[in-house]
UniProtKB/TrEMBL annotation:
This is DNA recombination protein RmuC. Belongs to the RmuC family. Coiled coil: none annotated. GO terms for biological process: DNA recombination. It comes from Candidatus Termititenax persephonae. InterPro entries: DNA_recombination_RmuC. Involved in DNA recombination. Pfam families: RmuC. It comes from the Bacteria. Keywords: Coiled coil, DNA recombination.
Amino acid sequence: MTVIISVVLSLLAVLNIILLVKVFSPQRETADIFAQRLDNTDKLLREEFGLNRKEMNDSARSARDELAKSLQAFETNFERVRASVEGKLKDIQNDNNAQLEQMRATVDEKLHKTLETRLGESFLLVSRQLEQVQKGLGEMQNLASDVGGLKKVLANVKTKGVLGEYQLGALLEQI
């Protein structure tokens, strides 16, 4: 905006100079007036350019200051958001860890319970089978002793037969 004003003022000054040259060119006095006006216009233009430069510098400085403030505010907000996200992420991690620990405890408990149940059932089955084996062994021992007794009875059959005949003969004589 200030550049446009400066350009317009420069054009007006040049037009003013051209107009003065055409109107007052025949006279020498006019040349002095023209030179004086030209100096005044030059001085005014320099002052205006200086003011425009100062305004532009002030405007640029103001824009830089605003940008710095905006960047600082953005950085502060970003840091706050980052801290919030980190906190929520830690909360999520802690919650996940707690849930995983709870799931692990539940699985361990169920596995332990199942293992105890199955081991108990297996030991009970083995115990019953051992009882049956022991019972069978007892019966086998009884059978073995009965077989041993039968073997004794059946051993020396001839001698026992002769003895039996004498005893039978004695019984018959008594009758």
